[in-house]
Amino acid sequence: MPVTSIERLQTLYDVTLALSSELDLQVLLPAVIDQVISVTGAERGFLMLGSSTDDLEFHVARGLDQETIASPEFEISRGVVERVAESGQSVLTVDAQTEGWLADRKSIHTLNLRSLMCVPLMVKRRAIGLVYVDNRMQAGIFTTDDLALLEAIASSAAVAIENARLYGLAVEQARMERELELASGLQAALIPAQPPAIPGLELAGRWHTALEVAGDFYDFIPRNDGRLVVVIGDVTDKGVPAAFFMGLARTTIRASLAADLSLKQAIEQANRLLCADSSGGMFVTLYAISVDPSQWQIEAVCAGHNPPLIVRKKGKTIDDLPGGAMPLGILEDQAYPATSFHLERDEFLLLYTDGVPDAVNPAGEFYGLERLHKILAKAQRHAPEQALTMIHDDVRAFADGQPPYDDLTLVGLRRV
Questions:
Q1: Averaged pLDDT, groups of 10, the chain, 416 residues long
Q2: What is the pLDDT of residues 242-285, one digit of tens each?
């Protein structure tokens, strides 16, 4: 008995209602095909969606028994699919065996395909995929009314699929944001909450991330011999990979310094360990200084990092500490020589990462070392905490609202 217009409208309403209530694509997509097979009398149904490379990928391939069809790419007419994908227009084939434009298609004869319908899934005039149904047993089973119904169902299904996709993206983004927030909190816990109290030494550090997580770090590491090691590091990458490597580097350096080794030996051991664990070409620049508060002797090791600045007695001159050597994690047998000097009373030492000189203003100018020298000459008259605030504020004022391209980390110390 022919299906009436009212029955078709009722079918479309029922299908649309069912599809609009589902936001899980893994449930929604098979439901679309099952509904299509049910209302059209098709033997098999296939649903394809566009991929990130703009190719169509099979997401559902089912028969009347709702069993999954294996190797669906070999079970359909590629000619029909290609025509719909390229034109965005529906195709109805009464008998593919006698259809002129399909006569030479090998799949038509190999699969004994007869009745076919294929319609695009359109969202705001944009094709996101297609629905393909066929019947290999009967010719002429699909009519123009069936095609119109399938197009109407496909229109509702396309909206439902897009809504489910957007919902899935929103859920995934929220999950990633929660994970990044957790990672940011865990990473922040690796940064000293406050410097250790050492008579005659004022210490401060500032750590500002450009993204949710950072590749910069600093640390204050007391040693068994009474010395204090101050380190500052910068992983040469950004985002989550840099954050993981930052945690690895910080832990490795701490563990190496806990051993009964000289500063040079400890950094060289840390380098060997990081070379063994490093993957993806990641490495970390580092500057480490060991402070002996009994004699105010400073030992310094540089691993490809920006040389710290020292403001000499009474602020008359600002010098660079020695640089040199490669970052950690590149060459396993790299040597890291140590240099030493005496820290005089009131001298101020500033360690920083390249987020300071590389800060950019709206005109595309770099903050640079010259500006850093000028603000340091003023800031060093104050306690390190206030001095670092002045430097940070000066960099931000220079950037004039430009989002930071890199993390910004500062460590200041003064012998008082």
A1: 62 71 80 85 91 82 89 89 91 87 80 90 89 87 89 87 85 79 76 90 92 85 91 85 85 89 94 82 91 93 94 79 88 93 92 94 94 93 94 94 88 93
A2: 888 888 889 999 999 888 899 999 999 999 999 887 666 789 99
| Token pair in block for residue 93 | 């084939």
- Mapped onto helix, strand or coil, the DSSP state of residue 151 is helix
Round to whole Å and give the CA distance between 134 and 76: 8
179 φ/ψ angles, rounded to the nearest 5 degrees: -65, -40
Tell me, rounded to whole angstroms, the distance of Cα 156 from its chain centroid. Answer: 33
Give the three-state DSSP class for 352: strand
- The DSSP string of 153-195 is HHHHHHHHHHHHHHHHHHHHHHHHHHHHHHHHHHHHTTS-SS-
Non-local CB neighbours of 90 within 8 Å, separated by 6+ positions: 84, 117, 118, 119, 120, 147, 150, 151
CB of 94 closer than 8 Å to CB of 115: yes
Task: For each of the domains in the chain, give its residue range(s) and CATH number, in order of start.
Answer: 5-172 (3.30.450.40), 190-415 (3.60.40.10)
DSSP string, 199-211: TTEEEEEEEE-SS
Angstrom distance (rounded) from CA 266 to CA 270: 6
DSSP 12-54: HHHHHHHHHT---HHHHHHHHHHHHHHHHT-SEEEEEEE-TTS
Task: Return the CA Rg of the chain.
Answer: 34
For residue 243, the SS3 value is helix
